[in-house]
Amino acid sequence: MGIEEPDVVHCARLASGFTYFIVYGVCSHTVDYREFREEGGDRRYRNKAEVEELIRSRLGRDMVVVGASTGSDAHTVGLDAILNLKGFDGEPGLEAYDGIRVYNLGSQVPNEQLVSTAIRVQADAILVAQTVTQQQLHIRNLTQLVDIVEAEGLRERVLLICGGPRLSNELAKELGYDAGFSKGCYPTQVASYIIDELIARAGKTTARTIRSPGEAACG
Questions:
Q1: Number of H helices, E strands in the chain
Q2: Spatial contact of 141 and 130, defined as CB atoms under 8 Å apart
Q3: Which residues are CB-neighbours of 38 under 8 A, at least 6 positions away?
Q4: What ranges do the domains of the chain cover?
Q5: What single string gives the DSSP state of each residue in 37-93?
Q6: How confident is the model at residue 133 (pLDDT cuts 50, 70, 90)?
Q7: What does the alpha-carbon distance between residue 169 and residue 177 come to, in Å, rounded to a whole number?
Q8: Catalytic-role residue among 48, 86, 173, 183
Q9: Residue 80: is its pLDDT beyond 90?
Q10: Adjacent-strand bridge partners of 91
Q11: What angle do CA 101, 103, 109 make, to 5 degrees?
Q12: 204 tagged catalytic
């Protein structure tokens, strides 16, 4: 394991064939942090005032966000940090933004209930938090949510965003989500992504509905 001068400060029998150790030592492995780049690290996130202005000027209506910790997951610290008025580290959550309507359903919410609520309130984005990762529970739960959203015919209309300490943007996209946010995420990052994506999608929709002069003549 690359530990030099190991010092076993505690050991205890756990079960047949298993022992618990606490070991201190000097790690011989090194990491060049300059070689690592956080995904999306070059992206400039908007501040609260900029997001609110875009909602007013470009979206022209309230932005609706529904969030929950789903399945058996009872942890809501990360979800609340993004959605609740108090926010995180001095930055207010999405509830504090003018023009954003937030529905925080809390913990242990069935995926079916989350989707039905999103349909009822005409959500623009669904946020799902997953903290419990034993036996890949988060993977199965996140995959099931994507399946339900697709079955309801909402996938092209609603942004799917997941977050949690063991999640990444890369993993989220592999599972069928639009984006994933990991530990250290701030509310403004999530708000920036949602409004930018909604504006971009609205532009694509408009472009598809405008026919060329040739198409108009043929019609």
A1: 7, 7
A2: yes
A3: none
A4: 3-30, 48-207
A5: --TTTTPPPP-HHHHHHHIIIII-S-EEEEEEEBTT----HHHHHHHSTT-BTTB--
A6: confident
A7: 9
A8: 86
A9: yes
A10: 88
A11: 160
A12: no
As given in the structure block, the two tokens for residue 58 are 């470009």
pLDDT tens readout for residues 11-61: 999 888 899 999 999 988 887 766 655 554 456 789 999 999 999 999 999
Q: Confirm if 211 and 219 have CB atoms less than 8 A apart.
A: yes
Placement of tokens 């926010």 in the chain = 87
Q: What superfamily in CATH does domain 48-207 come from?
A: Cobalamin-binding domain (3.40.50.280)
| DSSP bridge partners of 100 | 63
Which residue in the block uniquely carries the two structure tokens 């690359």? 2
Task: Record the tokens describing residue 36, joined without a space.
Answer: 């690592």
Rounded Cα–Cα distance for residues 207 and 201 (Å): 10
- Per DSSP bridges, beta strands 3-15 and 18-27 are antiparallel
Residue linked to tokens 């070991």: 23
Stretch 66-72: mean pLDDT:
94
Q: Whole-model pTM?
A: 0.76
Q: 12 to each of 6, 19, 21, 22, 98, how far by Cα in Å?
A: 17, 6, 7, 9, 55
